Amino acid sequence: MIIAQQKPLKEIFEMAKNFKRLLIVGCDGCTSIIQVGGEKQAQVLKSLLEMERRLKGKKKLTIEASSILRQCDRDIASTSLRSSVKDYPAVISLACGVGVQTLAEQFPDKIIIPAVDTKFIGMHDTEAGKFYEMCRACGDCILFETGGICPITRCAKSLLNGPCGGQAKGKCEVGEGKNDCAWILIYNRLKERNKLDLFTKFRLPRDYRVSEHPRELGGEPEEKEEKA
Ligand code: SF4
Ligand code: SF4
Q1: Number of Cβ within a 10 Å radius of residue 106
Q2: Residue 159 CB–ligand 2 contact under 6 Å
Q3: Which atom of ligand 1 is nearest to the CA of 150?
Q4: Ligand 1 centroid to 58 CA: how many Å?
């Protein structure tokens, strides 16, 4: 899922300071699951904004807080918010950057304030309360060849053909040895599975055209004009 983190309150207050009417919108997708941007966090942010304005002696503030199913879906975002957004000049979004941009596109006359920083695509370890980056959406997945461990993301240099000379005792030289070397993990995994032929396979440099930004997917393919 998309991993995000709430921005420092000072930053949110600064972006919202000129508005007397604010709509705070959470997202029931990724940011809600990781307890950063759902209904509950929207209500908490509402209380904090009200408190901040009171402390500054500025009493006139109307805030509504709610959450919608997904902010990254054009139709869901526009149908869920169409009636409520009209009463507010600004919306504070607790969704990832995709949600914020979807709202900005659907409601171009409103100021959309991002309240979270989008970090990465990652895995949640609920027990440890940690998130780990696992995929960089490279557009050409090679996990089948690497024992389900992504070298593009988990190797600090995104190497494709085994470890660099910097690994020491299974640890990566980047990051002061705190992370495992992805290629040692891959080697061990493939060895366990008796698949070391995949480890020695030579992989050509990647074709980065598949991950040029901005990418698109789906829709009807354009019909090519036939030459007369
Ligand atoms: S190879 Fe890695 S970055 Fe590419 S799609 Fe697979 S998991 Fe994601
Ligand atoms: S030590 Fe391992 S994980 Fe780190 S950059 Fe080299 S190959 Fe990649």
Answers
A1: 18
A2: yes
A3: 2
A4: 49
Q: How confident is the model at residue 220 (pLDDT cuts 50, 70, 90)?
A: confident
- What global pTM score does this model have? 0.91
Phi-psi region of 92 (alpha: psi -120 to 50; beta: other; left: phi over 0): beta
Please identify, by atom number, the ligand 2 atom nearest to the C-alpha of residue 165.
Answer: 6
Question: What ligand has the least distance to the C-alpha of 155?
Answer: 2
Report which ligand 2 atom has the smallest distance to the Cα of 166.
1
The answer to whether residues 7 and 37 touch, using CB atoms and an 8 Å cutoff, is no
pLDDT in tens, 151-196: 999 999 999 999 999 999 999 999 999 999 999 999 999 999 999 9
Which of 93, 89, 77, 88 has its CA nearest to residue 6?
Answer: 93
Structural domains of the chain sorted by starting position, each given as residue range(s) with its CATH number in brackets:
2-120 (3.40.50.2300), 136-205 (no CATH)
Ligand 2 neighbour 164 (Cβ under 6 A): yes
State in Å, rounded, how far the first CA of the chain is from the last one: 49
Distance in Å, CA 187 to ligand 2 centroid: 12
User: Does residue 151 contact residue 160 with C-beta atoms inside 8 Å?
Assistant: yes
